[in-house]
């Protein structure tokens, strides 16, 4: 392994990539988006710069998310995102290479999918990657007492997946991964606007609506928002007003799916651990946890206190950082760590 190497933690999410650099903390937090020229294959932009291009490019320039539901769908572009940010970090920090990486992955990934993540990370320039289930990383990042003989429940509502787990004695007792999360809510809103108002809008506009006036429960103060798009009948630009009640109706089915998945995990938990959760509550994180009132909805439907973790967008990345800085202590949590590679002289 080259000298002057650094270790990292990576939250390789469907919506965002976060990188934790040992002894420094989170140093990268950008959209998991790339833009490239389909004619030349040239990479044009990564992260925030690529996101600005969504819906605004000619046909020969594609703007894509190389991860879908937490799974690598475009291996080469996933590798390019990582390589881009790792090179950027190395230049800023004046170090030569990356030794080890802890990468958070959805708990339901197959062995082939996990291997694909490891290969992408190695191809981006990391000597030895390890993967850890995202719920465990999130619980560590949230400073939940995972080593104790007491249950903690974590719900990570990300972009592509919702990860639900009950953790005790440094292990996952029961878990569930659901392909309904923040991106699905955005898509629900996009479809609603098209069907209800016959207005074509892009993903960025639907995301803006969700953040500005979206909610899981009725609000004390009514919210509304002016949005612009293309009239699907006339083909001309058009502006309409959308209200919080309409957005809530659009995402209600997906929210029910998330609540029911949490209920299923609770129902199969051992009685003693279910009692712990009743006393200690449910911890939620991820971008979806920022939806207004989602904690109150879960609490009301399941009769269990529900709390949004402090700094919920970064808990998985922070967890991978804690693990990489205390690798010996957490080594048993890692899924199929790669053995040191044979070096041929």
TrEMBL record:
- GO BP terms in the entry: cell morphogenesis; regulation of cell shape
- What PANTHER family does its record include? CELL SHAPE-DETERMINING PROTEIN MREB
Entry's localization field: Cytoplasm
**Top-level lineage group:** Bacteria
This chain's function reads: Forms membrane-associated dynamic filaments that are essential for cell shape determination. Acts by regulating cell wall synthesis and cell elongation, and thus cell shape. A feedback loop between cell geometry and MreB localization may maintain elongated cell shape by targeting cell wall growth to regions of negative cell wall curvature.
Q: Which keywords, in A-to-Z order, does the entry hold?
A: ATP-binding, Cell shape, Cytoplasm, Nucleotide-binding
Organism lineage string: Bacteria, Candidatus Harrisoniibacteriota
Residues reported to bind ATP: 159-161, 207-210, 287-290
Q: Which GO terms describe its cellular component?
A: cytoplasm
Q: State the CDD domains in the record.
A: ASKHA_NBD_MreB-like (cd10225)
Record protein name field = Cell shape-determining protein MreB
Query: What family does the database annotate?
Result: Belongs to the FtsA/MreB family.
Q: How does it assemble?
A: Forms polymers.
Q: Which molecular-function annotation in GO is an example for this chain?
A: ATP binding
